[in-house]
């Protein structure tokens, strides 16, 4: 009787691919994040048009960007910044030629996670850029004005509350003083009446002493 052995070849780890859309204006930087903290056991690689443009490994000797990874790749010319802690890649001073798909690979212990960043760099004129900046500045001023108005409203409510408390204290003090004055007057009246009930002799003096 023959025994047949069936061999199954399974992938080493789970493969996941996420797609992201990124849109920026020409000249602005764009960052392609990993959203993780890279360990020495993980490698991060970036490809543009199937060409390696950046690499972060556990061995600093093999870390590279742009022409360091591929001498023929002169597209970015020193505009790539690789974060050694997170593995994120930043493209500075973007141009319309940077538009395209960027393939990110995070290679760990038996796992590979992939991200696809579809970057769109919009070419805008200087006038359009100034208009956008002005609108952004106006929005910031509006937010500041709203914040100041809220602060003034809060201050006004606080002043009214303090004024109300002071009014209550003044009224209470006035009422106490009035009550004390009435008590004194009442005592004077009682003494006067007591004195009147005695003859104007030694007994009156006794009443005064009492």
Would you identify the CATH H-level superfamily of the largest domain?
A: Immunoglobulins
Put simply, the count of helices is 2
Q: What is the multimeric organization of the chains shown?
A: single chain
Number of strands: 9
Low-confidence stretches: 2-14, 204-208
Strand content: 25-35%
Going by CATH, the architecture of the largest domain would be Sandwich
How many discrete domains? 2
Largest sheet: 6 strands, mixed
CATH topology label of the largest domain: Immunoglobulin-like
Strand order of the largest sheet: 1-9-8-3-4-5
Question: If you had to describe this structure to a student in words, what would you say it looks like?
Answer:
By secondary structure, this protein is of the alpha+beta class. It has two domains: 15-123, Immunoglobulin-like; 148-210, no CATH class. Helices cover 38% and strands 25% of the residues. The chain contains two helices and nine strands. Strands 1-9-8-3-4-5 form a six-stranded mixed sheet, with no helix packed on it. Strands 2-7-6 form a three-stranded antiparallel sheet, with no helix packed on it. The longest helix is centred in the last third of the chain and has 71 residues, at 126-196. The relative contact order is 0.13.
